């Protein structure tokens, strides 16, 4: 049975759709960053559908916040190029107005989704009466999301570190497997994943090169500031999901 969507949840889904529209606008305007049909907007719309149709689970807006925070960190990691799209869009592509409006809509929608997604998650958590299956369902949805994202990157030939993509692809497959092994396994997997990603983020932000955007090699993977921020957010989310999973409480009676 579906739950009623809160305003913040609707705002999260709307922000994801707006990001998809912004990316398509830039592509149609001839932005060279999108030489072929970009698969990203399809993913954003798919996540928006998960947020809407998975409203009975308090944590589904986290999916929207996670992918939005990932894209936001990437946007700021490419800040000089993105500012060129805003300040001199005519030097980027054929239709300057479309590139400018698409870029402006993209960053505005991303910030909106970042804030609304996290706020909606907190609001839904306070309204929830049980988190018994939270870790299991989180592993299932986030694991599936990472497998799909990793496959899209490999098929679409996006310019990302292939070892980093393979790490997230493998993690997604393990998360999916943990979700079908029971609530206890999923809970422990979430806690372990949270600890791993938080450690990875802390090391990157601490010992990464200051003059090279906090660049740091973790084995064959080259990680930057955007990756460290994403791992910090991802680790915090999964550690929290693992710690709260399985708890039940009584709602406080509302006062008129």
In short:
With 256 residues, the protein is mainly α. It contains nine helices and two strands.
Report on this structure.
The protein has helices at residues 7-28, 40-53, 61-77, 79-87, 96-127, 134-156, 162-179, 183-207, 225-244, and strands spanning 216-218, 221-223. By secondary structure, the chain is mostly helical. It folds into 2 domains: 1-128; 131-256. A two-stranded antiparallel ribbon has the order 1-2. A hairpin with a 2-residue loop joins β1 (216-218) and β2 (221-223). The two termini are 28 Å apart. The relative contact order is 0.13.
How many structural domains does the protein architecture include?
A: 2
Task: State which percent range the strand residues make up.
Answer: under 5%
CA distance, first residue to last residue: 28 Å
Order of helices and strands: HHHHHHHHEEH
Which sheet architecture does the biggest sheet show?
A: 2 strands, antiparallel
Strand order of the largest sheet: 1-2
Helical stretch count?
9
Shape: globular
Which oligomerization state do the chains in this entry correspond to? single chain
Low-confidence stretches: 249-256
Structural class: mainly alpha
Give the overall average pLDDT.
Answer: 82
- The radius of gyration over CA amounts to 19 Å
Tally of DSSP β-strands: 2
Helix content: over 70%
């Amino acid at each position: 049975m579906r739950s009623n969507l809160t305003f913040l949840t609707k705002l999260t889904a709307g922000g994801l759709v707006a990001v998809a529209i912004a990316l398509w606008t830039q592509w149609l305007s001839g932005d060279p960053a999108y030489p072929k049909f970009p698969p990203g907007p399809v993913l954003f719309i798919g996540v928006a559908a998960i947020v809407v149709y998975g409203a009975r689970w308090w944590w589904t807006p986290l999916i929207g916040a996670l992918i939005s925070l990932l894209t936001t960190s990437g946007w700021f990691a490419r800040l000089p190029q993105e500012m060129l799209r805003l300040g001199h869009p005519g030097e980027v592509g054929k239709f300057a107005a479309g590139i400018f409006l698409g870029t402006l809509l993209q960053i505005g929608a991303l910030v909106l989704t970042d804030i609304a997604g996290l706020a909606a998650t907190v609001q839904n958590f306070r309204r929830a009466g049980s988190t018994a299956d939270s870790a299991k369902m989180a592993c299932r949805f986030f694991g599936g999301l990472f497998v799909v994202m990793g496959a899209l990157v490999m098929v679409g030939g996006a310019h990302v570190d292939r070892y980093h993509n393979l790490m997230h692809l493998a993690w997604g497959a393990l998360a999916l497997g943990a979700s079908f092994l029971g609530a206890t396994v999923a809970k422990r997997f979430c806690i372990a994943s949270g600890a791993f990603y938080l450690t990875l983020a802390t090391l990157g932000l601490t010992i990464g090169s200051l003059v090279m955007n906090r660049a740091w090699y973790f084995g064959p993977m080259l990680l930057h500031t955007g990756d460290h921020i994403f791992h910090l957010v991802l680790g915090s989310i999964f550690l929290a999901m693992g710690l709260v999973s399985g708890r039940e409480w009584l709602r406080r009676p509302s006062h008129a």
